[in-house]
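User: Reviewer 2 asked us to show a designed sequence for the structure in our supplementary figure. I'm pasting the structure tokens here. Could you produce the per-position amino acids so we can include them in the response letter?
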């Protein structure tokens, strides 16, 4: 199962994710923002300045979630703000 915690910046998504992980056996936290930090340091940013607007970030995030699901029998808790509904739909596919 993938549990995506979406919400405004600073709302407590990471705190909630940690509490969920502590209460759910066989669960882990994956934070795609860490991929965003690497992407920001590696490739030119789009005009928006948001790494989520880069197909590279979306592709790497999807690949990482797929690999986690394939290699670990655990629920994945993802605390990440997604503003664009199209990106959420893509990541859910």
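Assistant: Here is a per-position design you can include in the supplement:
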């Amino acid at each position: 199962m993938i549990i995506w915690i979406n919400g405004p910046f600073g709302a407590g998504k990471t705190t909630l994710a940690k509490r969920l992980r502590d209460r759910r056996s066989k669960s882990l936290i994956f934070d795609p923002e860490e991929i965003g930090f690497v992407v920001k340091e590696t490739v030119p940013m789009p005009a928006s300045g948001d790494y989520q607007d880069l197909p590279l970030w979306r592709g790497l995030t999807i690949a990482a979630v797929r690999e986690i699901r394939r290699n670990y029998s655990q629920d994945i808790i993802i605390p990440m703000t997604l503003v664009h509904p199209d990106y959420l739909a893509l990541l859910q596919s």
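For the response letter, you might also mention the following. Residues 2-92 form a domain with the Rossmann fold fold (CATH 3.40.50.300). The first strand starts at residue 2 and ends at 5.
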